[in-house]
Amino acid sequence: MRTSIATVSLSGSLTEKLTAASRAGFDGVEIFENDLLASPLSPEEVRARCADLGLSIDLYQPMRDIEAVPAEEFARNLRRARHKFELMRRLGADTVLVCSSVHPLAVDDDSLAARHLSQLADLAQESGVRVAYEALAWGRHVNTYTHAWSIVEAADHPALGTCLDSFHILSRGSDPKGVADIPGEKIFFLQLADAPLLAMDVLQWSRHYRCFPGQGGFDVAGLVRQVLRTGYDGPLSLEVFNDVFRQAEAGPTAVDAHRSLLVLQETVGVAAPPAPVVPTGVAFAELVTPDAEPVAAVLGALGFSRTARHRSKPVDLWQQGEARILVNTSGAARRTGTGLAAIGLESPDPAGAARRAEALLAPVLPRRRAAEDAPLDAVAAPDGTALFFCATDRPELPNWRADFADVAGESGGAGVHRIDHLALTQPWHHYDEATLFHRSVLGLHAQESVDVADPYGLMRSRAVTNADGSIRIALGGGAAPTDDTVHAQHIALATDDVVAAARRFRQAGGRLLPIPANYYDDLAARHEFAVGELETYRELGILYDRDAHGEFRHCYTLTVGRVFFELVQRDGYRGYGAQNAPVRLAAQHTARAVIGG
C-alpha cells in the first residue's frame, strides 16, 4: 500500500522534513499548516519540491472549529475555507482534514453540523477538493468516529467523507468493529499512531506521547484490518505528535516511521517481506579499545584466555566456555574509546536474516575485509552497534571463526560458560525505535518496559529475547537528555556459582563494584538467608533478587571506558535484577567520582 507521513511527525524545516520522508521511502506527505506557514517556500515551490522528491501531497491539515457554530462564525469559516482551498490548488493537494469542533460557541446539534459540513463540501467541490471530517477524541460534542460518520452520512455529499485516526478511536476505547458500517469510498483518509497506555488527559496524551505503530500499546493492526475490509484504498499515513521525535534528527526518525508501516503491512497481511529469522545465540561480543591492556586485565581476571588472533586485523579472541569476546584495537577504536561495538548473532539462516534486515530498512554496513575473510553480513542497530549474522562451526556456511588463527594462551576459567545477556544504552531519542527494530528486524519478543531511578534522572529499560532465552538484550536509555557516561554498555556472563566466580576475579586482581552497606541491611529485612550468606554477599558486592520462578545473584566489575561486566547466577529467575538497578547506578556514580573518571 502507499505510505504517507504528516510533516508534524518530524523535526526541522519543511524542506528537511520532505527530504527525510522521501529518503525513508514514503510515497506521500500530509502538509501540516504550521509547517507551510513557517516555510519561506511558496505553495508552488513546495509542490515542485515534493514532485522532485517523488512525494504526493495527500492531505492538507487541519481546518478547525468549522461546524455547528453561530451564523456569523460560520460565515467567517467559509471565507477562511475559500482562501485555504485556493492555497490547496496551488499546492496540488485535493483533500483537507476538518477536525470536529472544540469551539466554545459550538452547539450540540447534529443536523446543523451536517448542514454546515455540506455547505463547506459545496465550496470544496467547486475547487476540486474533498473534505475529510475527523472526530477529535476531545471534541466538544463530536468525539467518536461513529458520531462523526453519522453526521457525514446525514450530510450525504459526494465531496464529504470521514477521516479515521487510530489514536482518536483507540484512546477512547471505541470498538473498531463499527468501521464495517462505513463504505470504503467514504473513508477519505486513514491516519495512524500508536501510544503507550497511560491514564491522563487525552489531549495531553495525544499531543505529547503518540508513537509509531508497534511502539505503544494500541491494537493498531486490528483497526487497520477493519478499515481494509471496507475497501479503503488510500494511503496508510502516520500522524504522530511526540516531543522526542520533534527533537530528534528527521532522517532516522523518518526511517523508523517507515519501518513501522512496513511491519504493520506485514502484520495485517498486505505485504510479505522476507520472514523473520530469529537468532539462536550469541556468537561473540566485540569490544573496541585504544588500549588492550586494561580490557585484557579484566578479561584475564574473569577467567578468559586469549585463544586466537585475526589473520589480517588487530583483533584478539578471548574465550571461556561458549562466551567469546573480541578485542579490537583498530584505528576506529582509538577514536571512540573502549566500548561495545558489535554483536555476533548465531543465525539458522544468515543470508535470510540479512535480507529481512535490509527489507526493513536496517542500514547494511560496509565491511573492510581481506579476500580470504568470511563474507559476513552486518547491519547497524539504532544505537550504531553492528549486528553480524553468524553460523559458527557450520561447515556448509561461512564461519567467522576461520578468520582467526589459534594462539597458545594460558588456560583460565572462573566458571563462566556463556554470555547471559547484553545491555545496550540507547540514545534517549531512539529508545522506542530500538524496541521496534529488535522486534521487527530480528524477530525478538519485547518484554514490558520498566522505569529505573538513576541518581540524576530516570532511565527506561526493556529486554528483548528469543523464546528460550539464549538471546537476551536489555535496551536502556534516559527518559530525557542526561549524562550517559555512567549508563554504559555491559556484558553479563553466566556462571553456576557467582560467589566462587567473584572470589576468583578478586584473587586475580580484579576490582568489583562496591555496594553500600545500607543495601544489605534492607536485604536482610526483605529476605531470609542461610548463616553467613548475607555477609558473603556484602563482602563481595553481590546483589540478590528473586521472582516467582527462582533466585538471581549478580555482581559487577568496575567500568573500563564505557563497558563493564556482570557475573550472574540464575536459578530459574527470568528477570535482569531491575530491583537492584538503582543501587548499581548510584554505586557506579560514586565509583566514578572516587576514581576521577
From TrEMBL:
A divalent metal cation binds at E134, D165, Q191, E239. Mg(2+) binds at H421, H490, E566. Residues 281-392, 418-570 form the VOC domain. InterPro entries: DSD (IPR043700), Glyas_Bleomycin-R_OHBP_Dase (IPR029068), Glyas_Fos-R_dOase_dom (IPR004360), IolE/XylAMocC-like (IPR050312), VOC_core (IPR037523), Xyl_isomerase-like_sf (IPR036237), Xyl_isomerase-like_TIM-brl (IPR013022). One of its GO terms (molecular function) is dioxygenase activity. Its cofactor is a divalent metal cation. Pathway: Aromatic compound metabolism; 3,4-dihydroxybenzoate biosynthesis. Its EC number is 4.2.1.118. It catalyses: 3-dehydroshikimate = 3,4-dihydroxybenzoate + H2O. Keywords: Dioxygenase, Isomerase, Lyase, Metal-binding, Oxidoreductase. HAMAP family: DSD. Catalyzes the conversion of 3-dehydroshikimate to protocatechuate (3,4-dihydroxybenzoate), a common intermediate of quinate and shikimate degradation pathways. PANTHER family: HYDROXYPYRUVATE ISOMERASE (PTHR12110), XYLOSE ISOMERASE-LIKE TIM BARREL DOMAIN-CONTAINING PROTEIN (PTHR12110:SF21). Belongs to the bacterial two-domain DSD family. This is 3-dehydroshikimate dehydratase.
